């Protein structure tokens, strides 16, 4: 029997990168997956990959910075699949740059698409997740970097997500909802751009990973998320888990 047979999952930002890898891995374990994001063409590509493997997927256009769009998304998914047991908050705009360079607009977008969207989605999905639900939020080890230069604004939005995750775990654990956060290093389009544009920094970064490689979106990140959402992880709640080959020390 597959780990997530009979479950329905909603993954934001699933048109590419880590979100796509998570969607593919959840579907491979039997979950029916709502693939959501801003670009319908990318969502349909992810759904096609799932269908080719014999899985079931449903594309839903969604703007995570819009409460109305999030409401419509959740309503559409529940109506289509008849329920919801897994929520993965992955989508996020990234406000990179030094404190002097990051604009108010970029930081606000990072906040609206990050902690605010995460909180909204958790609250919207809460009634459907009660009893046997699992939430996985995405943060970043950026806040654990040895040199925070250029990553402060991004890390601030991600640390907000970690705090919301811990609160949800404590407040909703008794309702049968587990909430955890992962901090992944993966070969996403954004990371590939970073490697190409900051090769020296990227080389130092990889050298600091004990396993000396960056994770695969599906094999290293997605498959762990599938395990985290399964009954085998039923007592894991409120945790921050780094999927980074041993680089970060959370403390």
From TrEMBL:
InterPro entries: NAD(P)-bd_dom_sf, Sc_DH/Rdtase_CS, SDR_fam. One of its GO terms (molecular function) is oxidoreductase activity. It comes from the Bacteria. Keywords: Oxidoreductase. The keyword Lipid biosynthesis does not apply. It holds the Pfam family adh_short_C2. Belongs to the short-chain dehydrogenases/reductases (SDR) family. This is KR domain-containing protein. It comes from Pseudohalioglobus lutimaris. The lineage of its organism: Bacteria, Pseudomonadati, Pseudomonadota, Gammaproteobacteria, Cellvibrionales.
């Amino acid at each position: 029997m597959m780990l997530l047979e009979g479950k329905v999952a909603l993954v934001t930002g699933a048109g590419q990168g880590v979100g796509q890898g998570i969607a593919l891995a959840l579907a491979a374990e039997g979950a029916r997956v709502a693939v959501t994001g801003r670009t319908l063409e990318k969502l349909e590509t992810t759904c096609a990959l799932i269908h080719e493997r014999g899985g079931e997927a449903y594309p839903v256009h969604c703007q995570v910075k819009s409460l109305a769009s999030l409401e419509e998304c959740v309503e559409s998914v529940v109506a289509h699949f008849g329920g919801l047991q897994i929520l993965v908050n992955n989508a996020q705009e990234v406000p990179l740059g030094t404190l002097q360079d990051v604009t108010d607009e970029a930081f606000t977008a990072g906040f609206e698409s990050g902690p605010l969207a995460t909180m909204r989605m958790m609250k919207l999905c809460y009634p459907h997740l009660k009893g046997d639900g699992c939430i996985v939020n995405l943060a970043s080890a950026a806040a654990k970097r040895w040199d925070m230069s250029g990553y402060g604004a991004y890390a601030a939005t991600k640390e907000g997500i970690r705090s919301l995750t811990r609160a949800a775990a404590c407040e909703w654990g008794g309702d049968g909802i587990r909430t955890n956060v992962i901090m992944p290093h993966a070969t996403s389009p954004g990371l590939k751009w970073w490697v190409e544009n900051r090769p020296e920094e990227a080389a130092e970064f990889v050298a600091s990973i004990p396993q000396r490689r960056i994770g695969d979106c599906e094999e290293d990140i997605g498959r762990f998320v599938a395990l985290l959402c399964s009954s085998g992880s039923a007592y894991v709640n409120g945790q921050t888990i780094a999927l980074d080959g041993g680089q970060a020390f959370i403390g």
